[in-house]
Amino acid sequence: MTGSTITIGANDGGSFSAYVARPAGAAPAPAIVVIQEIFGVNQVMRDICDWLAGEGYIAVCPDLFWRIEPGIDITDKSKAEWDKAFSLFSAFDRAHGIADIETTRAVAATLPGCTGKVGAVGYCLGGHMAYRTAAQTVIDASVGYYGVGINDALDVAGGISKPLMLHVAEKDAFVPPEAQAKVAAALGANPLVTLHNYAGQDHAFAREGGEHYDAAAAKLANSRTLDFFKTHLA
């Protein structure tokens, strides 16, 4: 499947690119905003968009690092790339990121063939931003994979008004047990929030080709994600 690139105007001026993958056929489809990891809109993110398009969704992955450096497309295969990724993570402004995600959501809702329903799914940094998206935008449903730093952003949890699912890696090196416990205590009783814990799994267990990729855990998480979107974006 071949995707395309669109340009989206930011709400405070400037513009950023987004990768778009569309399902086959002409039937109306919901959209999903795919929120990047710290490696930019790379092949992993484009493959996720293509996978979602194959499942019947219009998938849109915006370049959230454009304010720092547009067009980041790196991997997790070298120290230099990891150093670059962590520098981008440190420089990233989450308030600007949420604004750009909400702008992307609004654009996605009006793309030709979209039903108007829009979900979000994010990974790593994107998992954190998927949580914020549920709390700080009008997204219809949101899913976060191994989000980093959610425990430090629980002050916005009261804004969650639509369904949120979080996939939590029990052995996540970037999210220690006390951070996971804090998130569970704050969100576990919220009927809009579903928490799934993956025993023995480390960060990025669903990143194909990654050091901690686990096919069985990834398959389970992805099936739960698809069921979640099927329910809430119908």
TrEMBL record:
Keyword terms of this UniProt record: Hydrolase
| InterPro entries documented for this protein | AB_hydrolase_fold, Dienelactn_hydro, Dienelactone_hydrolase-like
Q: Which positions fall inside the Dienelactone hydrolase domain?
A: 16-232
Pfam families registered for this protein in UniProt: DLH (PF01738)
Spell out the SUPFAM superfamilies in the cross-references: alpha/beta-Hydrolases
Any one GO MF annotation of this record: hydrolase activity
* UniProt-listed PANTHER family: ALPHA_BETA-HYDROLASES SUPERFAMILY PROTEIN (PTHR46623:SF6), CARBOXYMETHYLENEBUTENOLIDASE-RELATED (PTHR46623)
The name this protein goes by in its record:
Dienelactone hydrolase family protein
This protein's species is Oleomonas cavernae
